Amino acid sequence: MNEQTATNLTEVERARRVALAVQDVSKTYGATRALDRVSLEVTGGAIHGLMGGNGSGKSTLIKMLAGVVTPDEGRLSLKGGWIDARSHTPARAKASGLHFVHQQNSTFPDLTVAENLALGRGFESTAVKSINWHAQKARARQVLDRFEIDVAADAHLVRLSPAAQMMVAIARALQDQDDTDERGVLVLDEPTASLPKHEVDVLLTALRRYAADGQTIIYVSHRLEEVTAITNEVTVLRNGCVASRLTGAEISHDTLVAGITGSSPSSKQGGSRRSNDVIASRVHLSQSAGFRETALTLSRRTPNGTTDERLLVRAGEIVGIAGLLGSGRSRMLKQIFGATPRDDFDVTVRSGTVPPSDMRTAMKRGLAFVPENRLREAALPELSIAENLSITSLSEHSRVGWIRPARERKAAQRLINEFGVRAPSTRAPLTALSGGNQQKVILARWLQRRPDVLLLDEPTQGVDIGARNEIHELVRAAASAGTAVLVVSSDFGELAALAQRAVVVSGGEVVDSVDGPLTEDILNDIVYAQEKAL
Ligand SMILES: Nc1ncnc2c1ncn2[C@@H]1O[C@H](COP(=O)(O)OP(=O)(O)OP(=O)(O)O)[C@@H](O)[C@H]1O
């Protein structure tokens, strides 16, 4: 065999092992180059990490693979031959074996496992065309066995652990894949965004098993420790370009941070130095402020007419709410703010009581609330970035009832700089920003008010590592300046890093409290012990 033939054989062998390839794909939105000649190769049976800071182009690339965003140029190879990426469609993505599971909206919590597995695919039917529930459940059990998911077919999804719910979503996406056929590619978009550590471990173990069984997986995540733990190859995007490609032992915390931020692998502090400058210029840290008077009290009304104080947060204090998905932790924040009705507990702040179901009064009384689903519940997607930022402080930008746009835009530009939002201009609609940057806008909107009480639900979900540090510093700075902060996070490491102490919520009630110093393990142990005890 001559040298040329050997090289060709290696090339052929390599091409055979590639499950998906993208070549020189570009996409421009107005003045923004979202993808700039991006190429990537995903090896069959690999778990391929896709990483990058907010606005680096990950979602655009995934949407292009799903056929819902048409690129300006580029080629795609799925199951063999190359096609022009501009001709790719959702139907073609499906036919080529591409399956997408997003953290939200991939399943229906109120339906059973069997119903979830049947929806969109068709229910088993009897001879007279009615649903054959018996066959339906039997089929669901087969799928559950195949994916080694230990739950009952007739269990309602909402009753399952978060990791089990995600595994059902994955089984739902892959159930029709023929075992004998070449496997497709499963794209998981931030699958662990709201899972605590224990649940993450369960899911990662299942994913490793699926990959060992030949399933190719693209794993999109901001969580460095998961990407280092689970992937065998990684593509890092930065500013729409491929910043690095890593395989095997090259994948480490340092090399990922270097790829994401552009810093050299040894200078770990690259991202946070800017953040410290930003914070210092924005808020005069009054480290000596310490804890002051009570800023927020939550009291439960008892049947005999007395009140039972359940939660108290002092000015300048950061208190975490730890609990599992479905524990009522997010609902509790919404009830305090009046976004969800409450009838059996009272909320008191420094300026008086906060009436139930009255967000306007809650805001007047100094409360601010950043919900978990910021885009659906807090953003005004069709309005500009400047308008989204000014909505909570309109009086500062208006005179005799008229908004002064120039002033509004100037203030918006200042916030964009301070919070490190990557935005083309203050006039661009919020939808023109990447998910993480939209989140920063919503946070900036509330933090600029310097509220008395700040209620934060999953403050850094979907936010990149640099921005996460910046947001933590901003929250600490707000607390140092006197704001009482109550924060929910499924990432107990985040709670331990931010909060001085925590309360544990289960079944919508405060059931325990943990004094600092907090660690992720302490919080995990206490929360799981509480769940077991119930
Ligand atoms: N529909 C759109 N219109 C205009 N600009 C857009 C649009 N979608 C994305 N962009 C821009 O393209 C760039 C890449 O965005 P993309 O959503 O792909 O980033 P991302 O890596 O997924 O970020 P994140 O982690 O924050 O979700 C960003 O600058 C964003 O503002």
UniProtKB/TrEMBL annotation:
Record-linked SMART domains: AAA
Domain ABC transporter: 20-264, 291-532
InterPro entries from the UniProt entry: AAA+_ATPase, ABC_carbohydrate_import_ATPase, ABC_transporter-like_ATP-bd, ABC_transporter-like_CS, P-loop_NTPase
Keyword Lipid metabolism found: no
Protein keywords: ATP-binding, Nucleotide-binding, Repeat, Transport
MF (Gene Ontology): ATP binding
Database matches in PROSITE patterns: ABC_TRANSPORTER_1, ABC_TRANSPORTER_2
Classification via PANTHER family: CARBOHYDRATE TRANSPORT ATP-BINDING PROTEIN MG119-RELATED, GALACTOFURANOSE TRANSPORTER ATP-BINDING PROTEIN YTFR
Name this protein carries in UniProt: Sugar ABC transporter ATP-binding protein
